[in-house]
């Protein structure tokens, strides 16, 4: 496995690989890898000739009051796990290289970024879209992989790629969960054992919503009420949002129909957790 | 010369050309071609194996009160001139294809877009950056050509390409002028013969500024005053801005030093004209 820190070298290698007719599968990450990330790398390995993973904690997607500084970093462990999962190249640039003095170009997916996490994290998706575009231009992938865990992010990247005529495929892969159903996230590292136990209610609330819909409940108001009730039964959790939206437009709906995204965000202590489920009906 | 209207076909052809090892030179235009555009195509022909010119009047770079609808269009004549200048492929997509329903992704070069024309044309450079990025992703050029006539645009595209790590070269080509020194522009078609004569004062004002600087005048206040005096001597002209700025940052300067951009924008009737000169000192 190669580790590349230079933008130019990564770009040149990508051009060279393309000239050799190799398909590049790309997994952009902020490191602190878990089984979710690794599932993306494994899929890339199946689909493409070369798997590139970027590891870069992107300052542009954190607000000043968020956890950029303390975001968990463990590059050595990440390299080990990436190699085990068949990654061929790790791209690991420095912050100064990615955001040099005078940097000022940003991409906004204006409508989709307004909803859900966009409300409580202004500027977040602008930072995400911008770094992903930069990475796409550096790594030159044929297919790029994103986790369904960040449902809104995946939807936004797909929109950006389509709107800006980017010549690549976006694949969104299912949420990977712990044995008890808790969605994997790098931020889970912040949780105390008690918090970890309390946070399991997210998955339970989603399950309840799915059960209701499978029992033909289509009234979104009733479903949301149940979700809130379940989450609020755990005093340590504070709801940021409980949303049931059209999975394509991310707009609120009143009635369950078509592809529906049930998305939750809660705070537990200083940690913000999200989880979601997509249901077709 | 090939005329391609489909995004997919253009993209596929570009990929194919790249695979054959061909270098693509790209000249994005809004049509109504004049010698300025053609000078870009001729340079592309010298530098690259294949010259692609896009002809697309981009609605996103016009404000609602601007001249999008009446912007001069003459596709047949453009094709003739492009062919004469050695263009191999014209890319001429429809508005619906470039901005389909639900389009919502925009690029902003945030600082450079604030100055000069950005003040009187809010959103203009956002529209420019976005369409150029789209076209770059479709045409996949090795080198792209822009005219110095639109000095701020050229500077912004260069910044965007660098900030977003786009793997291509940007070449800015000199302003092409009529025999009397009047800068060529598609919008000159709007001018009556009297207006055309009056507007020549732009070039005269720039010349005066250059003469002053060559005679070691470094006081920007004095230079601007002279420019304004000359332009205001023609009653039909209304100054939008007279700016003397750092050619790299586009920030106002008080003293002539380094690479300096002298940029003018005036209105004559309903027509907005710009002209500029770069001086090194």
Essential attributes:
homodimer; 281 residues; Pantoate--beta-alanine Ligase, Chain: A,domain 2; 10 helices
In brief, what are we looking at here?
The structure is a homodimer of 281-residue chains. Chain A is built from ten helices and ten strands.
What would you note in describing this structure?
The structure is a homodimer of 281-residue chains. By secondary structure, chain A is an alpha/beta fold. The first copy, chain A, folds into 2 domains: 172 residues, Rossmann fold, CATH 3.40.50; 95 residues, 2-Layer Sandwich (Pantoate--beta-alanine Ligase, Chain: A,domain 2). Helix content of chain A is 38%, strand content 22%. In chain A, β3, α3 and β4 form a beta-alpha-beta unit. In chain A, α6 crosses α7 and α9 packs antiparallel against α10. The first copy, chain A, is globular, with a radius of gyration of 19 Å. The mean pLDDT of chain A is 97. At the A-B interface, α1, β5, α6 and α7 of A face α1, β5, α6 and α7 of B. β5 of chain A pairs antiparallel with β5 of chain B.
